Amino acid sequence: DGDNAVVELGGVRKPVSLALVEGDQVIFMKGYGKADQSGRPVTPQTPFILASVSKPLTATAIMQLIEAGQIELDAPVQRYLPEFQLADPVASRQITVRHLLLHTSGIPSTACDTRMESSTLAEYVAELQTVTPAAPVGTQHIYCSGNYNVLGHILEVVAGQSFGEYMQENIFKPLDMRHSFTSEEAALSAGLAQGYQWFFGLRVPTHHHYNTSQL
User: Fold this and answer.
1) How far apart are CA 103 and CA 147, in angstroms?
2) If you placed Cys at 112, which of 100, 107, 146, 209 could pair as Cys (CB 3.0 to 4.6 Å)?
3) Smallest Cα–Cα separation from 135: which of 84, 101, 97, 99?
């Protein structure tokens, strides 16, 4: 039953914070498991590393600016970021906001990890100049965080504030997401759960570095 629920993947029990929503009402909230090696229990308020769940939140923010008339869905990225450039200048001119949202820009999956030296979204965009598209623009879905890193920087430029500030003011606050954060320091002070990674089939505690250039 619900009071004895356990999430188990690959034979390994996972900590989880669960909420069930019906309509506009939260009908159930509970934490399961331990938040870290100290044995601290998970609660409904325990922050977890968001990772790629940031993508639908970023898309929501972009759509807010589209509805406000500040961004056009099918406008080229270079309208908002003149410095946006891949190794292929023709493709660079063709990529639109819609392409980024749909992962159809042609930006390859090899360009979306933290091997790049950027520490901000602006620096990430600058480093794309050496990246060769993996497919013609609009022809293929290639999942890559790079698309959303570029969207995040468009948001910063158009809104005139940092990505974190915009998300706090326009996404988290209106939704009453009081336990969601855009800085590692704030999340740690609120009890951020321990991260893990797989190592030769074992789950090993690890610290997932918060990278402000990756969404």
Assistant:
1) 6
2) 146
3) 99
CA 115 – CA 96 distance, rounded (Å): 25
> Active site includes 52?
yes
Cα distances (angstroms) measured from residue 116 to each of 15, 83, 119: 31, 18, 9
Residue 33 structure tokens: 């498991």
List, in sequence order, every beta strand (DSSP E) within the chain: 7-9, 12-14, 16-22, 25-32, 195-199, 202-206
Q: Which of 38, 52, 105, 183 is catalytic?
A: 52
Residue type at 46 in one-letter notation = T
C-alpha–C-alpha distance, residues 193 and 208, integer Å: 11
Separation of alpha carbons 205 and 198, rounded Å: 9
pLDDT tens string 28-39: 999 988 888 888
In this prediction the pTM is 0.83
Convert the pLDDT of each residue in 55-80 to its tens digit: 999 999 999 999 999 999 999 999 99
Angstrom distance (rounded) from CA 134 to CA 150: 17
